[in-house]
Design a protein that fits this description.
single chain, alpha+beta, 2 domains, 2 helices, 9 strands, elongated
Length: 164
């Protein structure tokens, strides 16, 4: 009985010491930093998704501070941005403008109101940046409403056009 009693209370004591040490590390005063190599300025509050991450680098020369802004793509960033289809209504030539945030396979198709694919306008791998695609209709589509579906990677954007 005595052995179990001391064994139980020794574990309780060990857990209590561990908790106290944890609290002492959590609430202790921070150590002073050596500011001769690292100068920190208060940055404006910005959205990390739009403006990238801001890193403060050590000075190049004593007394000078270097601030470099790096843009690191994240998994939750949009791949396909700023999709415009013009002119609308279309008579003879369809112009598409979009921008990609990274390299991707792009498929552009024209579909009817029921969702049937009528024409594949563009299908290939595209580099990042702003892209422009033109497509001549030349009586390939009759008058009416159609949808242009732009698929880049796993993202897709659908725009409605009317053909005159």
């Amino acid at each position: 009985m005595r052995r179990n009693f001391t064994y139980f209370y020794s574990w309780i004591l060990l857990i209590a010491v561990a908790v106290l040490v944890n609290f002492s590390f959590a609430y202790s005063r921070p150590m002073p930093r050596d500011t001769t190599y690292l100068h920190v300025r208060k940055a404006k509050k910005t959205s990390y998704l739009k403006n990238g991450l801001t890193f403060s680098l050590p000075p190049l020369k004593p007394g000078e501070t270097s601030y470099v802004k790096l843009s690191i793509p994240r998994a939750d960033d949009k791949l396909l941005n700023d999709v415009t289809v013009y002119p609308n209504p279309v008579t003879d030539q369809l112009n598409l403008k979009f921008s990609l945030s990274r390299n991707s396979n792009v498929n552009i198709k024209i579909m009817d109101v029921l969702g049937n694919e009528l024409v594949t306008v563009f299908s290939q791998r595209v580099e990042l940046g702003e892209q422009k695609v033109t497509y001549s209709l030349n009586n390939k589509l009759s008058r009416g409403f159609y949808f242009v579906r732009i698929v880049a990677g796993t993202e897709s954007v659908i725009k409605r056009i009317s053909v005159m």
